[in-house]
Amino acid sequence: xxxAAWGVTLALCALAAVLHESLPPLRPAAWCLVAALxxxxxxxxxxxxxxxxxxxxxxxxxxxxxxxxxxxxxxxAGGRVVVLALAALGIVAAAHGLxxxxxxxxxxxxxxxxxxxxxxxxxxxxxxxxGSLGLPGALxxxxCMTLPLTAVGxxxxxxxxxSGLRRAAIIVLCSLQAVALLATQSAAAFGxxxxxxxxxxxxxxxxxxRRWAIAAALIGAGLIGAAIVLGVRIAAVTAVExxxxxxxxxxxxxxxxRVFADHPGFGVGLGCYGVLFPQYRQWGMNESRFAHxxxxxxxxxxxxxxxxLVVAAxxxxxxxxxxRARRGLEPALIAAAGLSFLLHNLxxxxxxxxxxxxxxxxxxxxxxxxxxxxxxxxxxxSRTLVMAAALILAAVALWIARGDAARDAAIxxxxxxxxxxxxxxxxxxxxxxxxSRSILSGALLERSLAGPDGESLxxxxxxxxxxxxxxxxxxxxxxxLGRVRLAMKDPMGAWLALARAAExxxxxxxxxxxxxAVARAIADLHQHEAQR
Length: 532
Fold this sequence. Notes:
Blueprint: H1 2-19, H2 28-46, H3 51-73, H4 76-110, H5 118-126, H6 136-155, H7 163-183, H8 187-204, H9 208-235, H10 245-262, H11 273-280, H12 294-324, H13 329-344, H14 354-366, H15 380-412, H16 416-429, H17 434-450, H18 454-470, H19 475-487, H20 491-504, H21 509-531
Helix pairs in contact: 1-3, 1-15, 2-3, 3-14, 3-15, 4-5, 4-6, 4-7, 4-14, 6-7, 6-8, 6-13, 6-14, 8-9, 8-13, 10-11, 10-12, 12-13, 13-14, 15-16, 16-17, 17-18, 17-19, 18-19, 19-20, 20-21
């Protein structure tokens, strides 16, 4: 998932560089905002529970902010290019999702793979479209933004196409995305899209009662449609993965509030909600790396300063969108796209998905004030700063993507004799990735168990300890350290590591059982020595 997201990041940074060739000077307020956010992110990285995860999360958000500023300051021609590119992205994603839902998933469900996990089997049999994003909610969030932009892009081709043909194209392509949105069976996305359309209609349509009636009808249809979609998912026999979504989300929200209560100063670091989630998980909660509410997650990960800044920015931007929606059809459609994303993040985490965050940044940049006079003067310093930021983000993206790809290759390596080499390559690609260290430690441990090999066992211990140093809050790193300590005939060290793993993940029965088994072995050993 991450290499694909970084590929999109690099592509959009390249697009930003192209658009920036005609970029006028950026406003001082924009650079003040960038500087303030950069300072907060630097502090957040320093106090993070896992710095690599925070860096992995902050870099695409920085790229999104950069892209939004560039699109906002670009020429009208550059803005049209962005609209058409995003509309094409939505059309392709919708077509892919419909193919999955109606062709590929039914075929796979008819011949299930015995190696599928229960979650994968449930996802396939549910028939929910995911596109290339891997999650139904992610595809739905993308379509909620690109569907209005498709209408904007085709409307902008009025001078090249006959009126009747243009209307037919708009109807067909928007309908394609609407059907794909329904195929995702995402109740939250559908309801938020309709509510966003209702809010835009309320501020756009003249004539008091008629305006209220249309807005209320859209919002009501959204809520009723979301309830129907939700009911279908819960009632479906095969919808195991979608049963009780509100109950599951409520558990995630509760954990986010508890994380914030325990770290009220500066949070736990962007992207680290999932790192700390296991120690707060209770029976009945789904295991998730996200809080399914981006505002609550920002509060837990960034503390009150960054979290409240995110909430305030969302409210201010939503107000700006509604105010500018009164100025015509195109601003209204762009406003609907942006508002649907802001509302959807009350129930999902699409801002944490780099691909969707970048799309939203482009939409936010398109929502500029059309009455502001264009500035034609050049600014070498402004262009240099933007290009330098793009290059830095691209370098970080390439470095992390290279390490993630090597780590994924090590995970997928099926031959034990090559697993050590794959783990070493992953560690060399990214020495601060704790997951790569744990993978390599496990491979070295298996090699030492296959035959007397003290050097491999010592190396396994070194990498397991380094993984715990890099990420002291992820339980399976401590579990791996405990396994290595057991192999080294160090029961007390193994008990300490396994006790830490069980403490960080109380609902993982396996960790508690192994901890207790080692404790009993230590007690038996002491008893035997006392009898001697």
